[in-house]
Amino acid sequence: MTCIPVRYARWDGPGLPFTLVDGVTAAEPGPGEVLVRIDLATVCGSDLHTASGRRVSPAPSVLGHEQVGTVIAAGGPVRCEDGTPVVPGQRVVWSVTASCGDCDRCARGFTQKCRSLFKYGHERVDQRAPLTGGFASHCVLRPGTAIVAVPDGLPDEVAAPASCATATVAAVLAEAGELTGRRVLVTGAGMLGVTAVAMAAQAGARVTAVDPDPRRRAQALRFGASEVDPAKAAEADVALELSGHPDAVRTCLQALAIGGTAVLAGSVFPGPAVALDPERLVRGLHRIAGVHNYRPTDLQRAVDFLAAHHAAHPFAELVEGDHDLGTLDAAFEAAHGAEAPRQAVRPHAAVTTVSDSGI
């Protein structure tokens, strides 16, 4: 592999603008590594929380963990999650985490909580190997990263969020159990929420989605919700909390029918505690589960679902904008209050604004 010029947007901390760093070259992938050209990345809600300081993350770093790209080179034999070889020219998405596979947590199946977990878009920049996030021209995938091939016909705008939003929802639904014929409540109808609505409805559930935003409620109906009336939220067999708002957590817990399951996945930033009535939990035979990150099989299920069903729902409309690495600040600004829950960043578009030229 000849030397490839690369660049990335460096985040230096809350309230500071992104800095475009170029004049860097990509090294040959090491054993088990894969060099990927990032074709499109999306600004996730977690990126917004990090940039604003709402959640703590090391700085400087390269943010971004929802992206789709094309394989440039692999350091030896590497396989996708379905067992097929990773080869140059292949479109892929990859997991938000890389795990060792050997620690006690990995041995128990909790690879997403590995003792030596590496998390794309959440690590401090190492100038010797800075390609660790989605807001860059390329990314180096480490050993222990789940890689899933993207089928032809699945648009980049639909595939990119699979690396976080869609795979997280797949993990949530796996924790929820059988959904056929069950009454499912989804609180929060943002990116994760409408994805959960579509996946649960496709699994045969009757879905009620609640959100204070009327535009989001209308969107949930387009993704397969039967109801968006909060009054219909009572007596849910399964309640999925995807907003992180304390009131939404309470709604999920209070709505559970006998034998009901609540899966909480939205509370990924600090917030007030929510009271739990242990008697109601015990007498109701309730189960409460938390989901954070996801397993490799969840990413595969996410891509499989999008490939099979994205045309039936307006997934492409969930991503808007056309930003480059030089206008990443504008992408983050546009994400606040935008109708679509994701802003698109194209790292190989002509750079509009250059704020730095080196490291």
TrEMBL record:
Cofactor(s), names only, from the UniProt record: Zn(2+)
Sequence ranges assigned to domain Alcohol dehydrogenase-like N-terminal in this UniProt record: 30-152
Enzyme nomenclature, EC number: 1.1.1.1
Pfam family, one: ADH_zinc_N
Keyword Transmembrane: no
Domain Alcohol dehydrogenase-like C-terminal: 192-307
Keyword Metal-binding: yes
Record keywords, A-Z: Metal-binding, NAD, Oxidoreductase, Zinc
InterPro entries: ADH-like_C, ADH-like_N, ADH_phosphonate_catab-assoc, ADH_Zn_CS, GroES-like_sf, NAD(P)-bd_dom_sf
Family to which this protein belongs: Belongs to the zinc-containing alcohol dehydrogenase family.
Protein name, UniProt field: alcohol dehydrogenase
